[in-house]
């Protein structure tokens, strides 16, 4: 009597099995349609998610098989993204305030452009930090290793090479760029309509054009950089005002050490400008710039100007020279200065004529390089 009921049960089970087989066949057919690349991408995404499960809130990790861009997309604003050592081939858009930092430093963590005509890091959000990468391969003429269309960003401890532009600031304000090596690019650092940024303690060399080029930019500080062996100029300003260029070493550039075009109110102080193949400092259509306490050493021509500028400290400064203390205006050291210093105060007795195109003078030329003078804290 139970036989019909058992038969019905068996038939029901067989029906379920048949349905499962049908689903399995459909799944296999679907998988066959998916490319191996998509499967690998899916597996990488799942791996990244699994590895970040249980991590400290606001802390994300990127592994070599993963993608920096995907992790940034998932990260919350204000998070820190730690990138494990390896080579990542990507172009990365950063649209939220995050810290992106390598775990092992630039020698072991490389970002290679996937598309050489797209910025490698494109920062479009404020308060982003990029720390500790080698960034290379954005070889398009206008392609940057790092492009800032944002404010208050930090770029530090990177090696940026073989890009159309090493670092580009476009309408960027109050960002800090420091402790980077920027070498072998087209332009080293480019500022366009960018104000109140700080560029300091970088090595900017062997770039195919200029070390630093700034257009229509105001109140930036360029301090303690080593700017050497660039194929055109060390620094060039076009239509720039009220910037500070201070304590830089600007040597052996193929054209000018510093070129100011139509730029006013800039302060140049404490720099060493030497062995540049054209002018150490060229001021073309530039006036009311203040130039003092610099060393101009063995340039093809130490300086030239075509408008009125100020070639000494605006006010007297307290300084020590050869064990004695003085107060007075300070000009610049010129390696081709021939005047004497009869009273031994470190200031030449005869004015130095700046260039030959205009009747301009440094009235307080230093008779020795600036390392022979000690300035008061208030003075410098």
From TrEMBL:
InterPro entries: NosD_dom (IPR007742), Para_beta_helix_rpt-2 (IPR022441), PbH1 (IPR006626), Pectin_lyas_fold (IPR012334), Pectin_lyase_fold/virulence (IPR011050), SCF-Subunits/Alg-Epimerases (IPR051550). This is Periplasmic copper-binding protein NosD beta helix domain-containing protein. The keyword tRNA processing does not apply. Keywords: Membrane, Repeat, Transmembrane, Transmembrane helix, Ubl conjugation pathway. Pathway: Protein modification; protein ubiquitination. Residues 80-230, 232-339 form the Periplasmic copper-binding protein NosD beta helix domain. The chain crosses the membrane at residues 6-28. Gene3D superfamilies: Single-stranded right-handed beta-helix, Pectin lyase-like.
């Amino acid at each position: 009597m139970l036989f019909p009921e058992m038969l019905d049960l068996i038939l029901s089970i067989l029906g379920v099995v048949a349905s499962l087989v049908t689903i399995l066949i459909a799944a296999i057919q679907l998988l066959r349609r998916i490319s191996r690349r998509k499967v690998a991408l899916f597996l990488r995404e799942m791996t990244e998610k699994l590895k970040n499960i249980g991590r400290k809130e606001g802390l994300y990790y990127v592994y070599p098989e993963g993608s920096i861009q995907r992790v940034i997309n998932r990260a919350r604003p204000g998070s820190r993204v730690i990138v494990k050592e390896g080579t990542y081939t990507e172009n990365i858009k950063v649209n939220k305030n995050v810290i992106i930092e390598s775990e092992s430093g630039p020698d072991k963590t490389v970002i290679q452009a996937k598309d050489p005509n797209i910025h490698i890091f494109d920062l479009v959000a404020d308060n982003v930090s990029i720390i500790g990468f080698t960034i290379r391969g954005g070889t398009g003429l206008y392609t940057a290793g790092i492009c800032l269309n944002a404010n208050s960003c930090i770029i530090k401890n990177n090696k940026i090479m073989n890009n159309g532009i090493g670092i580009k600031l476009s309408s960027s304000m109050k960002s800090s760029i420091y402790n980077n090596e920027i070498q072998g690019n087209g332009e080293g650092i480019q500022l366009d309509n960018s104000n109140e940024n700080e560029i300091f303690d970088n090595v900017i060399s062997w770039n195919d054009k200029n070390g630093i080029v700034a257009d229509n930019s105001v109140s930036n500080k360029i301090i303690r950089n080593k700017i050497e062996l660039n194929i055109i100029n060390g620094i060039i300003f076009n239509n720039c005002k009220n910037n500070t260029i201070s304590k830089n070493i600007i040597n052996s550039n193929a054209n000018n050490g510093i070129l100011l075009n139509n730029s006013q109110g800039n302060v140049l102080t404490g720099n060493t400008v030497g062995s540049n193949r054209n002018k150490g400092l060229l001021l073309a259509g530039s006036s009311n710039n203040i130039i003092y306490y610099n060393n101009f050493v063995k340039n093809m021509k130490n300086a030239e100007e075509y408008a009125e500028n100020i070639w000494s400290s605006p006010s007297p400064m307290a300084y020590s020279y050869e064990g004695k203390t003085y107060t007075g205006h300070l000009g610049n050291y010129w390696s081709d200065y021939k005047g004497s210093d009869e009273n031994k105060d470190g200031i030449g007795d005869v004015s130095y004529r700046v260039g030959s195109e205009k009747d301009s003078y440094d009235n307080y030329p230093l008779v020795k390089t600036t390392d022979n003078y000690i300035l008061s804290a208030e003075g410098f």
